[in-house]
Design brief:
Layout (H helix, E strand, L loop, with lengths): L7 H8 L20 E5 L2 H4 L12 H5 L18 H14 L4 E5 L2 H4 L9 H17 L2 E7 L5 H4 L9 H16 L5 E6 L1 H10 L10 H25 L4 E7 L3 E3 L4 H16 L2 H4 L9 H10 L15 E5 L4 E5 L8 E3 L18 H13 L6 E5 L8 E2 L2 E2 L2 H19 L4 E7 L18 E3 L6 E3 L1 H11 L3
The chain binds beta-D-glucopyranose (BGC).
């Protein structure tokens, strides 16, 4: 059994008196027998082998070569070398007691030309991962797009190109035909608001554009892609369970001043509503007239179309933190900015992300209230901390507390009637954390990036014990 000290985080949280935190020991069995517990990774963050077996560069390989965009000049060329070590890593997943494994397909490994003919070596790799999962009794959850567009398609305009939907349908067809006889659970897009806004408006992720007009086009196309990906899978994979993932954050205005309230509403619209509402057939959110008009003026193709609607079997929600928002007239377009957690009296992670399981509960309930969602799975949730070795172990108490408190909130949401079917911890092992490089460590397993040595952290052992109590 892993010893867990009561940490600063739990103390601070209990001061906020979340009643669901005080309901006795947390038991996996309380989530019910058909609940899916898994860990998630993604291709660019874990695979490495960037130039091997016919894979062409993705936008992340190219973006990472730019000066000053990624912490410590990190590159996703090797990362955790999952490409060569997947067997051992899947054994770890199994040993930690998880029943599901979420990973993504590298588009440029499967289709080095972005479109056209599939690369047999690329297909073989994902086949091997899927077969190994099945051999170990792990249920594979496949994400089709986790942010790594082939660079050849970026050269043609990427997500801003009107051709992207044709390219994406082709990619989905190839994957459905190659893996559909063994993969039941599919996730079409990972966090569309993340790759469109960070990649095309804020320039903080690949492909590093700061162009409002392009951003608006990417939103339009990604909203179509998430639904069309669903249609292709429905047609080609009998009995598929189809979902797609959304990031979400409770948004709290900094003060009750009208300017802060409306700044918070604008950010809420962008972060929480922009992609789910068209998917559910509600159209793009229009109640913030000012913001939507600004968007429409920028991009005449900004129109809701029925191509954006699809009846998903489940929705994947990914939550890490709530956001406190204040009016900021100097911020272009949204005129709002985030009030850092470290400047307020709240617990936060090494990325200055507020830790607040109460906000996790609220945002899940809010999505459920939309109606029209069949099931919700939490497809990512986790935290980065500055892990330190002590006598060969990493006693990451703060991460354990993070998981405990968020799982308690999840259970509360379930008790309050949300049809929750799964939870995936982010992430199996420390990996390439996008613009943060290798500095931000989210793993249940520590990775030494010089030697590739894996060391299970105490949070990993905590999960093993928690899941072993499943009976
Ligand atoms: C992404 C992951 C990422 C995690 C932590 C999510 O937005 O899907 O790829 O590592 O957040 O930043």
């Amino acid at each position: 059994m892993v010893e867990v000290e009561k940490s600063r985080i739990l103390e601070m949280l209990s001061e906020q008196s979340f009643s669901f935190l005080n309901q006795g020991p947390l038991k996996a069995a309380a989530f019910g027998p058909d609940f899916h517990f898994g860990v998630a990774i993604s291709a660019t963050q874990n695979e490495g082998a960037a130039t091997i077996d016919g894979r062409s560069p993705s936008i992340w390989d190219v973006y990472a070569r730019r000066k000053g965009v990624i912490r410590n000049k990190a590159k996703p060329t090797v990362t955790c070398d999952f490409y060569h070590r997947y067997k051992d890593d899947l054994l770890l997943v199994k040993a930690l007691g998880f029943s599901c494994f979420r990973f993504s397909i590298s588009w440029s490994r499967i289709l080095p030309d972005g479109t056209g003919k599939a690369n047999v070596a690329g297909i073989n790799f994902d086949n091997d991962v899927i077969n190994e999962c099945l051999r170990l009794g792990l249920i594979p959850f496949v994400t089709l797009y986790h942010w790594d567009l082939p660079q050849v398609l970026q050269q043609e305009g990427g997500w801003a190109s009107p051709l992207i939907n044709r390219w994406f349908r082709h990619f989905v067809k190839i994957c459905a035909k190659a893996f559909g006889n063994r993969v039941k659970y599919w996730l079409v897009l990972n966090e569309p608001v993340g790759f469109t806004s960070l990649g095309y408006m804020l320039g903080k992720h690949a492909p590093g554009k700061r162009n409002l007009e392009q951003f608006l086009k990417t939103v339009h196309h990604a909203a179509i892609a998430q639904a069309e990906g669903g249609h292709v899978l429905r047609e080609l994979v009998p009995n598929a369970q189809i979902g797609t993932c959304f990031s979400c954050s409770e948004i709290v205005p900094y003060t009750s001043k009208p300017a802060d309230l409306s700044a918070a509403r604008r950010i809420d619209l962008l972060i929480n509503r922009l992609f789910i509402e068209p998917l559910l057939g509600k159209g793009f959110p229009e109640d913030d007239k000012g913001l939507m008009d600004k968007m429409a003026r920028q991009n005449l193709s900004w129109r809701f179309t029925e191509r954006m609607q699809f009846d998903m079997d489940f929705i994947g929600l990914q939550n890490y933190f709530p956001l406190v928002i204040r009016h900021n007239p100097f911020m272009p377009f949204v005129q709002a900015s985030v009030v850092k957690a470290s400047s307020r009296k709240v617990p936060f992670t090494s990325l200055d992300w507020e830790i607040n399981p109460g906000s996790f509960l609220q945002i899940i309930k809010r999505f459920w209230k939309y109606g029209g969602i069949r099931e919700i799975m939490i497809t990512e949730n986790g935290a980065a901390f500055k892990d330190r070795f002590s006598q060969g172990r990493i006693n990451d108490t703060e991460r354990i507390d993070y998981f405990k408190s968020h799982l308690s909130a999840l259970l509360q949401a379930k008790k309050e009637g949300v049809n929750l079917k799964g939870y995936f911890a982010w992430t199996l092992m420390d990996n390439f954390e996008w613009a943060e490089g290798f500095d931000a460590r989210f793993g249940l397993v520590h990775v030494d990036f010089n030697t590739q040595l894996r060391t299970v952290k105490n949070s990993g052992y905590w999960w093993r014990d928690f899941l072993n109590s499943y009976s």
